[in-house]
Amino acid sequence: MAESNDKRPVLAVVGPTATGKTALGVELALRLGGEIISADSMQVYRGLDVGTAKVTPEETQGVPHHCVDILPPEEPFSVADFTALAGRLVEEIAARGHLPILVGGTGLYVQSFLYGVRFTEEKAPDGLREQLAAELAARGPAVLYSELQAVDPEAAAAIHPNNHVRVLRALEHYRATGRRLSEQKAASLPPERPYRALVLGLDFAGRDQLYRRIDARVDRMLEQGLLEEARMVYGHRQTYRTAAQAIGYKEFFPYFAGEDSLEHCASQLKQASRRYAKRQLTWFRHMDGVVWLEAGSPGLAGQAVRLAETFLHEG
């Protein structure tokens, strides 16, 4: 899609987990006078640091990071919340004369924001969410997923049957509005995208290299206190709904329940993280206009800065 040059320029650094997005985002911000908007659905939560690979104060190198540590884990945070907040942040960052840089691996957040997806303000009727949660407990997840397949097959195809939060959200939308979620999404794209964007994607030349990085990261997280963090989430699993379903925490629940060994749970986390990285890659490969760079290559930062400078001068 052609981009108009009078639009606000936005940079984005995307890709699967463990490819070095955080470090590259900081480098770009330092070299180009930027501020970071985190596009990660879990880093918004305070207290969930190790399992979300949250940027540390040292790693920021003084670069402002937004959408990090803004909510307690009990609070829901949706893609609609993210796009509204990121939209305000872009204007504030630009008003300071700085460059907004989106950094993160939550593809739905990045794409919805850059494509200008409009989310309806419709609120579900009081009690509907609780009613659906009660149905889930009484009838089981398979029954509710089958219902979603019947009323909105396209949405069901895009949602994993075990992702109860998204299954319930899609059913909630259908019951509240009588419209399929997939219909709403198709109708919610504007004729033109709101920003002029350069999206840099990070990936390794070989899948094995990415998987080794993921495995090493899990080992490092365990050394940094991941188990204690996961235990906290397990203890609050009824109220920390989002975190309790997140990769990095739920894999250890069988260990805390005395049903599995720590070693096997850690192995399950590595496998889940590798699968997640594969899904992230699929998502970003389907986004148009992503410029792919080799993660970990010696000249990565220089190459990214040159691309960004060319992009900014074109505007």
Compact description:
This protein is of the alpha/beta class and 315 residues long. It is built from 15 helices and six strands.
CATH architecture of the largest domain: 3-Layer(aba) Sandwich
Gap from first CA to last CA: 16 Å
Instruction: Bin the helical content.
Output: 40-55%
- CATH topology name of the largest domain: Rossmann fold
Please give the number of β-strands. 6
| CATH C-level of the largest domain | Alpha Beta
The largest beta-sheet arranges its strands as: 3-2-4-1-5-6
H-E order: EHEHEHEHHHHHHEHHHHHEH
Structural class: alpha/beta
> For the CA atoms, what is the radius of gyration?
20 Å
Average predicted local confidence, pLDDT: 92
CATH superfamily of the largest domain: P-loop containing nucleotide triphosphate hydrolases
